[in-house]
Amino acid sequence: MSISTLLEKAQSRIAKATDRGAMAPMPESAGHRLIEAEVVAVGSPAASVRRITLHAEGFVGLGFAGADEYFGLLMPGPSGRLVLPDPDRLNIRAAVAEIPQEDRPVLRWYTVRRHDPVTGTLDVDIVTHGTAGPGSAWALSAAAGDRVGFRQCGALFLPGDASRLCFVVDETAAPGLCAILESRDLDPDCRLIVEASDPAHLTPLPWHPGLTVVSRDGAAPGERALALLRELDAEAFDYFYLCGESDLASSCRRYLVSERGVDRHTVLFSGYWKLGQARV
Fold first, then answer.
1. Which H or E run includes 117?
2. Number of H helices, E strands in the chain
3. Are 177 and 194 in contact, with CB atoms under 8 Å apart?
């Protein structure tokens, strides 16, 4: 094992310990496998969403940490060749950065929408917004036969014995929410707030009596969702799941913990992206 790998393992343990003290616990990762996969189908379940179906023998029987499993998608770099980093490296960003620029793959993060461990296929839904971003550009041009890398990461949703759940997400976290809804029956008193900049960015959501979808209508990310969250009785819930744009996740957490006195260990929050910035 290289020195780099040993250091990355130590840093990972420190980061996990820090996260455990700051918010609700997350599932233990099922592994960090790096798998080369092939695009076998491309669909459009919504006007601005591309559903990419990947296949790999490594997906057969692959275990996931939870319903909202997320992963690193590695797309071919400038040369058009798919060159993958050292599979033993835990710090995938650092490993990618060491690849010569011409062959350096583009790394972006997505949630597994659906996984079939028997056929070795999985779906990923990618919200598209033109060709300015590499993930969106790749999704718009992806075709059967294209090859990509899949870096297994982990999951976020771990409510434990909690049953009174409150979700606040945006369109980027909607695939994970859909997967969660399909994996378990939620109490009818649970609440689900979904904020989207455009309804075209959302695939059909499983029905739940506590579901509310709100359009951003030009407001700042999280503003509409936070307003709806403020209307709820925070004491009615014993677990909060806040995921999406960074300001949405952080503002909702700050309101719950600082203003309402909610135990931070019952609040899971994650900023998937930051308005105006690329997440790499």
1. none
2. 6, 11
3. yes
